[in-house]
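Subject: Sanity check before I submit

Could someone independently write out the structure tokens for this chain? I want to compare against mine line by line before I put it in a report. The sequence has 259 residues.
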Amino acid sequence: MQHLCNDLEAEQRSLDDIVGQLDDREWEAPTPAEGWAVRDQISHLAYYDERGRQAIDDPDGFRAHVAEVFADPVRAFAIPEERGRAMTPAELLGWWREARASIAESLRALEPSDRMPWYGPDMGARSFATARLMETWAHGQDVADALGVQRLPTDRLRHICHLGVRTRGFSYAIRDREVPESEVRVELASPSGEVWSWGAEDAVDRVSGPAEDFCLVVTQRRHVDDTALVVEGLLARDWLEVAQAFAGMPTTGPAPRGS
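---
Independent answer below. Compare away.
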């Protein structure tokens, strides 16, 4: 758990290195997420880091919050951006820094198997920390794309790759589709040169290529056709067309850039 929290904090610092020196105009730069500027991406992270700390430290209070969300979800899901837009860039940056520090402290006090409430089913502490790392990296990608920044991939991507593989069934289930029984072999080249693999070695359907590209696809930041991934088999292709490593309603990723 401590290693995972170290990686989460490193991912947060990496994004902070990008946004910490922005001027007011850059905070308003539009990102690939329709209607969201850079400031909205950071507001989103700050708000759910804050709620994550509440879920750990005050589970009853968090469950009361969830009941309010389900009573008026449209209003509830607008709150993070509204809060952020009412702040100056310095205030917003301070909010995010405080929120992420508090959740890291709360997570470090947990065992990996400890359970905590969230907006759907309860989550294990390890899974929750991995999801926060994934969210930080994915929203950080939106920020980087908005600002034209090229990020250096790190082996922290392994957490996101693992989550992407584990959520294969979820990606079908939220679309009311039958989860395929056959496995897909995934073999990815890590930034440090290792090969990370999942699934049966003799599986007919296979995905291989750069780990960063796999993360971009399962977080719906790139279409598979705009990556260097090699996809073999109809089942593997079908999965990457719907892959969704994050919770919530089913969403559609970007179309191929040439379309």
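---
OP: Matches mine. For the report I'm noting this point. The first strand starts at residue 115 and ends at 116.
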